[in-house]
Write a structure and sequence with these properties.
Low-confidence stretches: 1-14, 115-133
Helix content: 25-40%
Number of helices: 18
Shape: globular
Strand content: 15-25%
Number of strands: 14
Radius of gyration: 22 Å
Length: 515
């Protein structure tokens, strides 16, 4: 990596400097010129690693070579190759494309220098520390986006971190390689390149965040869906040790697949293109052609109905995160973990699949997951009048997310690790989504009026819901406690709804069916 220029080193000690409407700071790769408004400094498209193309394609992330002069950091950086959502999901899940090769970048939102210091933290929790310039450093929240390991970007309006910066948190949103570029299983290439990107980004944040006024000793890493899966894997990976002080896992499966199973989609893409599942062969194909092949082989696939898809692969340092974390690998890190009440509705309602789930589909699911008749009776009793598709969705939600979350929390409880569990229960009237996957995001970011949020909520979500949920995330990032009772044998779950409350052992009769 290029050494930081002397003027960048001098600026870094005092964090952000103001110059008219611009803000300037220095990181290890060079000088950055960001923008400022509303008491918030923004540095967008900041590289944390070299562009993963050319000789670096399908290779582990490499240090950025640096730049001379001031780099413009006022616009989002390049996004990873991907295709927009389809099949009905495009009505509720946005996509964005920013051209360029430097896709391994971060966006940073930070409270401007000179604002009031954060509220003092309670006894026993480390408060903000003052760097050489005398300003208090702020707690940091690093966001890892979701998208089934094949879509998403930090440039989405959904992930604007202004509200966190407004509330005294330095917010960092990262990009990582997606789809074939990030999660192929190829001969001659490392496994889980997208995960290695996330670990490299966390390493960059720990090293550089003080340049933006962030406290490198107070980093919370948070993610939703595939982002949560990547965080769990980073916490379980030897190279991820010590890179986060707290973690928020939202609606993300905790598991990784055996190499052979994870590589199924790579082999299908190779067959579609008529090439070998090897690094050199895949590197000879343009990124957009790989995305097109990916779309062809995954047609009709969803996380709840099955089919080929990208997954984390066990091997090269990564064991199954659910097993590793269940055995205590991250017990020293406080964890906030949860899901939405009706996760599966995202893939069943906008796509019209709910109405197409037949008795045969339900019977096949029962056989595949060894679901007993007694379990089905409990689920039917609790949902009078529910269709087969609705029952299928309830079972899928619990099998994919709710049950693993309970196992994770129970395992940590047995060793005294600090864990808080939540459920997002507010039901959107739009397109029958209810409390579907992704529905909590507008509340987490306290941006209910954003266009991306309205596509999910229809404008019906109460302001109090966003205040409660966003406030819990800020409290966890700043104080290490979201504000309700941690997980105990009584199984307290914070339920975010029109009336937010803590519920003991919600739907315990259903959970107990799986014991």
């Amino acid at each position: 990596m290029a050494s930081r220029p002397d003027d960048a080193a001098a600026l870094r000690s005092d964090t952000i400097h103001e110059t008219g409407e611009a803000v300037i700071t220095g990181v290890g790769s060079g000088m950055l010129r960001g923008s400022r408004s509303g008491g918030i400094a923004r540095f967008l498209g900041v590289p944390y690693a070299a562009a993963p193309f050319g000789p670096l394609r399908f290779a582990a992330p490499a240090p950025h070579p640096g730049w001379s002069g001031e780099r413009d950091a006022t616009r989002p950086g390049a996004t990873a190759p991907q295709a927009p959502y389809g099949g009905g999901l495009e009505r509720v899940l946005p996509s964005v494309e920013v051209a360029g090769d430097e896709i391994l970048n971060v966006n940073v939102w930070a409270p401007e220098p000179g604002d009031a210091d954060p509220t003092p933290e309670p006894d026993g929790v480390a408060g903000p520390q003052a760097p050489a310039g005398g300003r208090a450093l702020r707690p940091v929240l690093v966001w890892v986006h979701g998208g089934a390991l094949s879509r998403g970007a930090n440039a989405l309006d959904s992930y604007d971190g202004s509200t966190f910066a407004r509330d005294g948190v330095v917010f960092v949103a990262i990009n990582y390689r997606l789809g074939s570029e990030g999660f192929s299983v190829l001969e001659g290439a490392p496994l889980n390149l997208g995960l290695l990107d996330v670990i490299a980004a966390l390493r960059w944040v720990r090293r550089e965040i003080s340049a933006f006024g962030g406290d490198p000793g107070q980093i919370t890493v948070a993610g939703q869906s595939a982002g949560a899966s990547l965080i769990a894997a980073a916490l379980a990976h030897p190279d991820g040790k010590g890179l986060a002080d707290r973690a928020i896992l939202q609606s993300g499966p905790l598991a990784a697949r055996p190499r052979e199973r994870a590589g199924r989609i790579t082999r299908l893409i190779a067959k579609d293109l008529g090439i070998a599942a090897e690094r050199d062969a895949f590197a000879s194909v343009a990124p957009d052609e790989l995305v097109a092949a990916q779309l062809r082989v995954t047609a009709g696939t969803t996380p709840v109905t099955g089919g080929p898809g990208f997954a984390l692969a066990v091997g090269e340092g990564l064991a199954d995160p659910e097993v590793v974390l269940g055995a205590g690998a991250a017990d020293a890190i406080p964890v906030l973990i949860g899901s939405t009440r009706e996760e599966a509705r995202l893939w069943l309602e906008p796509t019209g699949l709910t109405a197409r789930i037949s008795a045969l589909h339900l019977a096949a699911a029962r056989l595949s997951f060894k679901i007993r008749g007694a379990t089905m009776r409990v689920y039917r009793r609790n949902r009078p009048g529910a269709s087969r598709g609705e029952l299928f969705g309830a079972l899928a939600t619990d099998l994919l997310l709710r049950l693993p979350i309970n196992r994770f929390a129970d395992a940590r409880l047995g060793r005294g690790a600090a864990t808080w569990v939540y459920e997002f229960g507010w039901s959107s009237p739009r397109l029958g989504l209810g409390a579907a996957h992704c529905m909590e995001l507008p509340a987490v970011f306290d941006r209910l009026d954003a266009a991306d949020a309205l596509a999910l909520t229809g404008g019906a979500a109460p302001e109090s819901l966003a205040g409660e949920m966003h406030g819990a995330w800020v409290a966890f990032a700043t104080q290490g406690d979201p504000g309700w009772e941690r997980w105990t044998a009584d199984r307290p779950v914070r339920t975010f709804d029109a009336q937010t409350r803590t519920v003991l052992a919600p739907r315990e009769d259903e959970r107990a069916c799986w014991d």
